[in-house]
Specification:
Length: 466
Amino acid sequence: MNGPRSTTSQEAADELRGRLSEVSDADLDRGQDRNRHIGSNIWRLRWHGQLAVAVPGSAGDEFVRVAPFGALYVRGDLPSFLTRSGPLDESVVNVLISRDVPDNNPTETEQVMRSIRDAAQQGHPRVDLRIWYWGGSEWQRDEEPAPTWPGDCGPTEWSAACTKADEWVNNLLLPRLNEQPGDLAIDLVARVADPSLRISSSAIKLGVQNKWSLRIDGLEIGVASERKVTLSIGKDHQGQTAGPGYERRIFIEVFGSRKVTVGRDGDSRNPDELTLDEATEKIRTLLSRFRRVSSGDWVIRAENGNAPDEGAWEARLLDGRAELEGLESELVRDDAQVIRGSQFPTLWQHPHRRRDGHRLMQKYLDAMVRDGRTPIAVELKAKSEWSLAYYREAFVQAVLYRHFIQNTPSLDRWFFVADLDRLSVRAVVTFPRPDPLTPTIEHEFAVLRKVGAMVGVDVTFIRESA
């Protein structure tokens, strides 16, 4: 049976310790490694003269997925106990997962681990990353292939994963790349004349056409169709925090309602609708309420914060107001009216031979930019304070986004229209430069870059464009 066993954390730890009976206590650290920000669910050890990490069976999937990167982080910054008993073979890194060996119907996490394993083959230096599961009496290495998404899976496999990418290309990706919004939305954005207000794609799918999202620094303030613009922010909270959140409260104070519509001037306009001029002035007022002197022209969403969030950084990267330090990058399509290159969907698993109605979960790439014909898949993380553990988790997403793009030929139509080479896609992890950039952060950033290099992922800071 796949997945973690229903045991307590202590029982799972004892079980794993028994499975590592040949490892001496001097070669094993199962506590929290505060210096490297690695939790107690990821044990560090010397195993057959090689570096390894081990994960108890009760650990959640999120710990399993990040374990290889914890191991690579240790490899880039070796603790002394691993080399105390002699030289360590650093060309091999082992991940021991105290769960049953995957069967012929692997879980998403088991497939994720195979994709991460293969990513190490693209690294510099190349690392032989090995994934092991418990086979009942000994550790067994997982050498099964990572998932792929061919255009025609054949009659013996569940069709959803085979057709999903084709559906996305037709109903999501190509419309988002080519279509233009209606004149009403374009006129409204032009009248406001603020670089933070842009049009981006809303949910484009079968039966839903020409629906667009109006966003200020990534925060949706309305949706537009060919003939109407509806302005609103978010939904009311439920439960103990019932009522409008911070952004919606500000919207209500400015517009006097939770939702308003905007129409063309003239006899056909509903009397309850705002004119373009009225909507323009209220959006400008809304912008002034979200901005704070200490944050310049950024739209700040947090009620008690002053730092731009991930959504704001993402929006600025996609409209050219932010750039990746040290990397040449430009927009997928330089469009003065619409943000392109956003909401790129991916899959992390292929449900081989499944017919049980299992739903494939898509994950969305933060941003797609380009360097000439080379696509750049960007995973962006932003926190008000430096967070090594949080930023390291971004490697999982970046590696898997790249793996999906490289292994899904059905996407070729979109990349052809965008004049991009799908197979050359690069993965990037980025985050805002901390201020101040302390010696500790500089050291940790350098190790993050080493870890990224081991799986072929660039690590850089994002900044406002010059």
